[in-house]
Amino acid sequence: MIYRFITIEGNIGAGKTTLAKMLGDRLKARLMLEQFADNPFLPKFYENPRQYAFPLELFFLAERYQQLKNMFAKPDLFAEVLVSDYLLMKSLLFARINLLDDEYHLFHRLFDIIHPQVPQPDLLIFLYAPVARLQQNIKKRNRSYEQHIPDEYLFKIQEMYVQFIRQQSLPTLMIDVSDADFEHEPEQFEQIVHALDYEYEPGVHYLSL
């Protein structure tokens, strides 16, 4: 395996955790999954975004940072690969969408202190799906507090991610999952696994399933 630290990113409902678990199992890798259910502000945020956005994003940033620090402080000698279903940078991207300007500037200062302290992935996998498909996936997984996420919010996240992907320098494999079902279509999952055999230059590379 060329890559030792693989991170999977994408919009809400893109299939990040599903793919991370499948790759973790196939590669016999350590798995680092976001503990979003531990964030007590998440259901409250969807009910009242303005009131709970700042504590929501602070909690996520602290939890993600602590999880990354703990993971790399105790390397598992029997598992050479680490697969994660989030990138720490997502904290800043979501903060830009959810916070007022003065809140965002403060959050950005905190992020700039934390971000250099955690390793960056060797490969970023970005799952792209249109908003209509994201909404289908969100409905299917049936988390109560997600059932009324407006399309507009998902579009904002999508735009923010696309802008970030174009500007960043990590080797990035963008996978179009608009019509994909890699969980139930083995050949699609094998395409993804096969794509990990290639060494990618910094920048964006594309894979359609």
TrEMBL record:
It comes from the Bacteria. ATP binds at residues 10-18. SUPFAM superfamilies: P-loop containing nucleoside triphosphate hydrolases (SSF52540). InterPro entries: DCK/DGK (IPR002624), Deoxyribonucleoside_kinase (IPR050566), DNK_dom (IPR031314), P-loop_NTPase (IPR027417). Transmembrane segments: none annotated. The active site is at 80 (proton acceptor). It comes from Thermoflavifilum thermophilum. The keyword Lipid metabolism does not apply. This is Deoxyadenosine/deoxycytidine kinase. CDD domains: dNK (cd01673). Residues 6-195 form the Deoxynucleoside kinase domain. Keywords: ATP-binding, Kinase, Nucleotide-binding, Transferase. The keyword Phosphoprotein does not apply. GO terms for cellular component: cytoplasm. One of its GO terms (molecular function) is ATP binding.
